[in-house]
Design brief:
1% of the residues lie in helices and 47% in strands. By secondary structure, it is mainly beta. The radius of gyration is 31 Å and the shape is flat.
Length: 576
C-alpha cells in the first residue's frame, strides 16, 4: 500500500492479498519500518514471482547488505507462480525508531514482490508500530526527578489485569509504605513529540458500557409449548398453557445477573427500562409484568397490546436490582391464538443518566473552582463536602475541579480534579496552540483495598484554601492528609504531607491507576523506579521497591495521546 505511490501495483490471484508491487526498469524498493526498542532483526522470507530472465537481487537493512539471491524463473513463465527465498542467515541489530529495508536488482526485465516477512526480537511490537503508525522513543534519563529521601523504601505491587476495552482502568499498582510522611505527584507532558491529540472515549470493545443489560431477538411463539433460550447475560423460560377459565396464555420468566459495586459498577443501583415488541398479535390483549430484585417481588404492572406489531415498555426504578443473587422478570400474556406470533425483540436497557450538575463555587483572575454532582454517583448515597476558606460550604459533591489560566490561550484549563472516592487527576497546561488535552492516568490518594476491582478511599470533607490551593482532606476511615497544588508552564505538582493513616495501616497509601490494551493503545506502557531500566507496565514483576516511580509512555497512542506522564516521588518516610 505504501509502495503504490512510487511503483506499479498489479492484481495477481495467487498473491497473498491478490496484489503485488511490480519492480521494473532497474527500480529499487525501499520500505520504512519502525521498532519499539533496539532489536535483532532478520528476514525470514521474501515471496516473489519472475516470468522473465533470472535476476540477482540485493537486500539491505539500513544500507548494510544482509543477503543476495538469484530470482528463479517460473516454468512455464507465469507471473502468478510465486517462489520464496526462505530465511536469510544474517541477523542485524537495529536501533529504535525508523529503519529501511531496500531491495534492488541488476536487470531491467522486472520482478514482483508479494510480501516480506521480518522477524523482530520484541514480544511487544505491534503491526501499528512496525508500520510506523505508532512511534516510540528511546528511554530518557530523568535525572531531575531523582528524589533526595530519608530512610526506607516503598513497595509497588503489580495488581493489573488484561482488557480489550480502552475505557477500563485495568492498570492498578498500589504503593505501600506505612511510614510515609510526604510525597509529590507530578503530571508532565509525554516525552515523545507529537501533535496528535485524540481525546475522546473509545467504547468499541467495552461491552459492559452498552445500553443493553441483555437482549433477545426473533423468538417464534407459534409452535412452541415450552422453550429455554440462553444468552451470556440472561436466560428466558417460555411456556404456553390454558388457565382455569379456558383462556390461552404465554409466560416468560427471565433470570439474570446485574453487576454492582463489587465489580465497580452501578447497574444494581441504576434504573432500567424493559421493552418488548411482538409481530403477529391477533387481537388486542393484555401483558402483565412483575419483577423480583433486592426488595422482593414487585406489584403487577399491566399494558395493552394492540395488533399486529404490539409494543410495551416498563420503567424500573433505581435501586431495584441486586448483585447478591439472581434477579427475575415475569411476563404473562393472554391471547386466543398463537398463529404466526413472535417476539421481535425483548430487552432490558440501562436508564439514561442525567447531565452532571455543576456549581461554580469560586472564580477570580487566578483560579476557578467548580463542584460537581453526578447522577447516580457510584458510591451513592454517600458524597463529600467541600468547604472553602471564604466560609462557603457545599454538600453532595461527587468531585470538584480546579482551573488555571491558559497562558497562551483564552480562558482557563483544568489542571486538577478530586473525586469523592479518592481518585485524583492532574494535567499540565496544554502546549501552545492546543485548546485542551485529556486526562489519562489517575492516582488514588488514600488507603484502599487493593483487591477491589475498583479500589477507593472515600472522602468525607475537603477544606480548600482558595488563595494558596492547599487542602485538608478527611477520609471516611479516619485518615487525613494535607495537599498543596502547584502549577507552572511545564508541569502540575501535588504535594501530599501530614499523612495520618486510618483504620488499616497495612493498606497502600497511594494507587496508580491507568489503562493498557496494547502498545499504541494505552495511557501508560512503562514504569521506571529510581531511574533504573524501565519495566513494561503489564509485566508480572510482582513487586518493585523504590522511592521514585515514573509512569510513562515510550510510544505514541491512539488513545489520549497527549495525556500526561505521572511521577510519584516519596520525599520523606521514617522507619521508626
Amino acid at each position: 500500500m505504501k509502495s503504490g505511490v512510487n511503483h506499479k501495483v498489479r492484481d495477481l490471484y495467487n498473491a497473498a492479498n491478490n496484489k503485488v508491487v511490480l519492480l521494473e526498469n532497474g527500480e529499487h524498493l525501499s520500505l520504512i519500518f519502525c521498532l519499539r526498542i533496539a532489536s535483532m532483526v532478520e528476514i525470514s522470507d521474501i515471496r516473489y514471482s519472475n516470468a522473465n530472465e533470472t535476476d540477482t537481487v540485493i537486500v539491505k537493512l539500513d544500507d548494510e547488505i544482509v543477503a543476495a539471491f538469484a530470482t528463479n524463473r517460473s516454468t512455464p513463465p507465469d507471473w502468478n507462480t510465486f517462489m520464496s527465498t526462505g530465511r536469510f542467515p544474517t541477523r542485524s541489530y537495529l536501533d529504535i525508531g525508523s529503519n529501511i529495508l531496500q531491495i534492488s536488482f541488476n536487470s531491467t526485465d522486472g520482478m514482483t514482490i508479494d510480501y516480506i516477512d521480518i522477524d523482530v526480537d520484541d514480544r511487544l511490537i505491534t503491526q501499528e508500530i512496525a508500520m510506523c503508525d505508532v512511534t516510540c522513543i528511546k528511554d530518557f534519563n530523568p535525572n531531575w526527578q531523582h528524589p533526595v529521601v530519608s530512610e526506607g523504601l516503598s513497595v509497588a505491587m503489580q495488581k493489573s489485569y488484561t482488557t480489550k476495552c480502552s475505557e477500563i482502568s485495568n492498570v492498578n499498582i498500589p504503593i505501600y509504605d506505612k511510614f510515609v510522611k510526604s510525597y509529590e505527584i507530578i503530571a508532565a507532558s509525554p516525552q515523545y513529540k507529537s501533535f496528535s491529540n485524540p481525546r475522546y472515549e473509545n467504547t468499541s470493545e467495552c461491552y459492559h458500557l452498552s445500553r443493553f443489560l441483555w437482549i433477545f431477538r426473533n423468538i417464534s411463539l407459534s409452535n412452541v409449548t415450552s422453550e429455554t433460550i440462553q444468552t451470556d447475560k440472561a436466560t428466558a423460560y417460555i411456556s404456553k398453557g390454558v388457565n382455569s377459565s379456558a383462556e390461552s396464555f404465554i409466560t416468560i420468566l427471565l433470570i439474570f445477573n446485574v453487576e454492582g459495586r463489587s465489580k465497580g459498577m452501578i447497574d444494581t443501583d441504576r434504573g432500567s427500562v424493559l421493552r418488548i415488541q411482538f409481530n403477529g398479535v391477533p387481537e388486542q390483549t393484555t401483558i402483565q409484568m412483575q419483577y423480583k430484585g433486592r426488595a422482593g417481588i414487585s406489584s403487577i404492572e399491566e399494558r395493552i397490546l394492540d395488533p399486529p406489531g404490539a409494543k410495551a415498555s416498563w420503567e424500573i426504578p433505581d435501586f431495584t436490582w441486586t448483585d447478591a443473587n439472581l434477579n427475575s422478570i415475569y411476563l404473562y400474556i393472554n391471547s386466543s391464538s398463537y398463529l404466526n406470533l413472535s417476539i421481535v425483540a425483548l430487552y432490558l436497557t440501562r436508564r439514561q443518566l442525567l447531565p452532571d450538575k455543576v456549581v461554580g463555587v469560586y472564580k477570580d483572575d487566578d483560579v476557578i473552582v467548580e463542584a460537581v454532582n453526578v447522577d447516580l454517583w457510584w458510591l451513592t448515597p454517600n458524597a463529600m463536602q467541600l468547604t472553602l476558606s471564604n466560609g462557603q460550604s457545599y454538600n453532595d459533591v461527587s468531585y470538584f475541579r480546579i482551573y488555571k489560566p491558559a497562558i497562551w490561550n483564552e480562558g482557563y484549563v483544568q489542571v486538577f480534579v478530586m473525586y469523592h472516592d479518592g481518585n485524583v487527576r492532574l494535567l499540565p497546561v496544554p502546549p501552545e496552540g492546543v485548546d485542551w488535552i485529556p486526562f489519562g492516568s489517575s492516582v488514588l490518594i488514600g488507603q484502599a483495598n487493593p483487591t477491589d476491582v475498583r479500589p477507593y478511599s472515600a472522602i468525607t470533607n475537603v477544606s480548600l484554601d482558595i488563595e494558596t490551593l492547599r487542602m485538608d482532606v478527611m477520609y471516611a476511615d479516619g485518615g487525613s492528609a494535607k495537599l498543596e497544588l502547584q502549577n507552572n508552564l511545564v508541569e502540575t505538582r501535588l504535594i501530599v504531607s501530614n499523612i495520618f493513616f486510618g483504620a488499616n495501616i497495612d493498606q497502600p497509601f497511594i494507587t496508580f491507576r491507568s489503562m493498557y490494551v496494547s502498545m499504541g493503545n494505552c495511557d501508560v506502557d512503562h514504569v521506571r523506579v529510581n531511574g533504573a531500566n524501565p519495566t513494561h507496565i503489564m509485566d508480572d514483576f510482582g513487586f518493585i521497591m523504590g522511592r521514585s516511580f515514573i509512569f510513562y509512555r515510550k510510544c505514541t497512542s491512539k488513545h489520549l495521546n497527549l495525556s500526561p506522564d505521572i511521577y510519584i516521588n516519596i520525599k520523606r518516610s521514617k522507619t521508626k
